[in-house]
Amino acid sequence: xxxxxxxxxxxxxxxxxxxxxxxxxxxxxxxxxxxxxxxxxxxxxxxxxxxxxxxxxxxxxxxxxxxxxxxxxxxxxxxxxxxxxxxxxxxxxxxxxxxxxxxxxxxxxxxxxxxxxxxxxxxxxxxxxxxxxxxxxxxxxxxxxxxxxxxxxxxxxxxxxxxxxxxxxxxxxxxxxxxxxxxxxxxxxxxxxxxxxxxxxxxxxxxxxxxxxxxxxxxxxxxxxxxxxxxxxxxxxxxxxxxxxxxxxxxxxxxxxxxxxxxxxxxxxxxxxxxxxxxxxxxxxxxxxxxxxxxxxxxxxxxxxxxxxxxxxxxxxxxxxxx
Length: 323
Ligand code: SF4
Known about the structure:
- Helices cover about 50% and strands about 10% of the residues.
- The chain is an alpha+beta fold.
- It folds into 2 domains: about 25-95, no CATH class; about 145-320, no CATH class.
- The strands form 2 sheets. Strands 5-6-1-7 form a 4-stranded mixed sheet. A 3-stranded antiparallel sheet has the order 2-4-3.
- Strand 5 (about 100-105) and strand 6 form a beta hairpin.
């Protein structure tokens, strides 16, 4: 079985009490069954506290937050469970975050999630490099269609080299990527996918895009403020690296429904939005990921918008990139 990971994957180290936006804030933490059983049997004051805050909600086991923070978060910025029992006592989510695993059966890809500030720094500052690959024993017969996967893998490589071409500006690379995804979509499904109504003049396209993001579920006031006070800046290399991260993360996921173009529209819209918001690109991208990538409803809404919202019409996106 082949294991692939981004070249910066092993460089990640949690900032713990130095983290500017800890994953212990604002999210509701789901605890896996095995860890919940361990916590429920734990003796002493920590066990008592865990039994107080472990709750069932919509079929999930959660640690119910206190003042918007994980109840195990200590004022010194450290996790009480980790401090008293060590890393292995953390639930699966906390042990893994921000590490991502995409298991396709006969190969596995590892990456980092942009919603962690330290991972965002690595993702958006590390120069482009191929995935690091090695063979290990094991693996399963894949459930995917081999021909479709072969097409997605080869076209993802092409998309990444197109994006990295120094002769293309960031905007040109994103435009070419969007056109290329349209061709690949045709090869995958034998035709193009439906486009939304084209009723949005290009000069109103960005306002329509911001409106759309304002209408999604919003977790933090910081994101709401950023959306309300955009400060458009120039294209920067961080935007190119953001696109690289999104290609690496989402391109092969089209194997589940063959909707590649919708995913590429999502990544182009993400780059356009973050350029429009301006500010510190790394901090804004991290917050974008926390708000959008970590909310399955928001991701679904964006993939739907690729077919239904005028701001996501291919010609609107190309117009905004070429403006
Ligand atoms: S967000 Fe990242 S760096 Fe910050 S505490 Fe969580 S894992 Fe560590």
